[in-house]
Amino acid sequence: MTPILKDEKFKHVQQKIVSDIEKRKRELAFFRKKYQRQVRDAITFIKENLAEKMRLKEITQYAALSQFHFNRIFKRFMNKTPFEYVTERRIRRAKTLLKETSLNVTEISLQVGFESVQSFSNLFKKKWACPLPNIARKCCLRTRRSERIEQSA
């Protein structure tokens, strides 16, 4: 092959790649436009019912999609499964309650929708690298104090 042919072949491959990328962008834009409302509705449902026992079936009924289809779409939008999203929201809410209230760990775990203190503690430990939520409360208080000191400086 002559160098000219190699350049032409490279140019053709480059054009094909650019064309594929543009096609993918159009498909993604269509996908986002088509399913954005359902995902937003599901997130609203999750936020409003965070303390309740939630099953994927209930969330998908609210979003008006099949469980399989919704799970795939939600993951594509949020980069996590609905279960991971619910768990993350619950842990975040629990962290806020630890910071802002004097409720004990059992009350907080039940208030944010965990079925047991044990599951709450395990997930909390995974997410925040604190051995127990009540120890995390002390960390949160320390963080709050240091934030106040930084703000006043």
Can you describe what's shown?
By secondary structure, this protein is mostly helical. The chain is built from seven helices and no strands. Helix 1 (3-48) crosses helix 2 and helix 1 (3-48) crosses helix 3. 81% of the residues lie in helices and 0% in strands.
> Which percent range describes the beta-strand content?
under 5%
How widely separated are the two ends? 70 Å
Q: Helix fraction? A: over 70%
Number of strands: 0
Number of helices: 7
- What composes the largest sheet? none
SS class? mainly alpha
Rg over alpha carbons: 23 Å
The shape is elongated
Overall pLDDT: 79
What ranges have pLDDT less than 50 throughout 5 or more consecutive residues? 143-153
Q: How are helices and strands ordered from N to C?
A: HHHHHHH
Please supply descriptive tags for the structure shown above:
single chain; about 150 residues; mainly alpha; disordered C terminus
Quick structural overview:
It is built from 7 helices and no strands.
Give the SSE layout.
Layout (H helix, E strand, L loop, with lengths): L2 H46 L7 H8 L3 H12 L3 H19 L4 H7 L5 H12 L4 H20 L1
Helix pairs in contact: 1-2, 1-3
